[in-house]
Amino acid sequence: MWRGVAAMDVVVDQISLRRYNLSAVLRHLCGAGPRSRARIATDLGLNKATVSSLVAELGERGLVLAGDVERGQVGRPGQVVEVDGRVCGLGLQLGVDHVAAYVLDLRGEMVSSHHRRLDIQDLGPAGTLAMLAELIGSIVGGAAQDGRHIAGVGVGVPGLVESAAGSLRIGANLGWRDTRVVDELVTLLGNPEYPIHLDNDANLAAIAERATGCAVGAGNLIYLTGDVGIGGGVIVDGRVLRGADGFAGEVGHMTLAGDGRLCGCGRKGCWETVAGMPALLREIADPGSPIADPAMELQERLAEIRRRAELGDARTLRGLDAIGTGIGLGASVLVNIFNPQVLVLGGFFSVLGDLLMPAIQGQLSGQVVSESLSQCRVERSAFPFTAAARGGAHVVLESVLADPTRVPPGLARAGGSR
């Protein structure tokens, strides 16, 4: 019996080592660019036969392909190996009135993007998830027709998310509670082969900004959504801060005004009631004003706000100053607590960032411990309204990089090259 267990341990160790080496080769090609097999072996300290075997398996899984002959190297030139762009991640971002979808390939290039307006309050959870499933199925099917493979789906939603269970515990601004998002999507999609991952939208947005946005490589950052509500994605030492129950980052519900307005969460004076989009509209427009009409497209609304500000409209300028002050007040608390390298403003905070920044910086300068502020730069998001969708795609691709065997074999190109 003991000999059998020992033999099994050896097999498991060999499988784990194989996966580790497959991951190492694939990550190296993603980071360093095309390389010959001999050069990969030298770079990673592996023997050439092992690298040839690893490259062959990665090619069979559609993750790498043979490219041109390597130039400028001493000795016999070898054919380079490069990352194939056919394996992709699909990310979706669900907002209060829209859904955005983004497909990224393993090379980090955008394959496609999609945007739809949704009346989520009218559709409810069942109708909304049916629309999401239809969109996912359409994108996955279209990718397959183009010869691409969707390795998974990452979905970002605002609210308290139990990622392991795939559930949205509380989505105050969506009006959802205890919604088993992943289970419902899996059922609607007919138990697809690809996995579906659910996360808080701000967490995914923070991942996107760190991967390819305005905070590339930052080990410590805070991402703030700017929408109907305010969410926060916090990365500490390179990892998303999740907390004991996975609910860390619900910064929009910090109480900044104890006797303030009623929030969708049921409490009064939450940060998002002070600095969210409804607060901005209350400051700059009377009830019934066209700019406050829910039917108005967000981009059109933001363009009109900017137009008024640039014309010097006094009420608009006062409103922007009030919202910037509110943003800065809450942000200063977070900067003092987490001491980030970068504070990223997302959503409408980013789009109107130049108009909001003086008030934000004024609050930060007055409220943040000087040493913390000197080490933190404030940036406007590179992807104001698609960061979470991009982050969802990045999460999928990271799972492939961590374990290339997640992608099934049989995806090799005919001939093994471009």
TrEMBL record:
Alphabetized Pfam families for the sequence: ROK (PF00480)
InterPro entries in the cross-refs: ATPase_NBD (IPR043129), ROK (IPR000600), WH-like_DNA-bd_sf (IPR036388), WH_DNA-bd_sf (IPR036390)
Family: Belongs to the ROK (NagC/XylR) family.
Protein name per UniProt: ROK family protein
The species this protein was found in: Phytoactinopolyspora alkaliphila
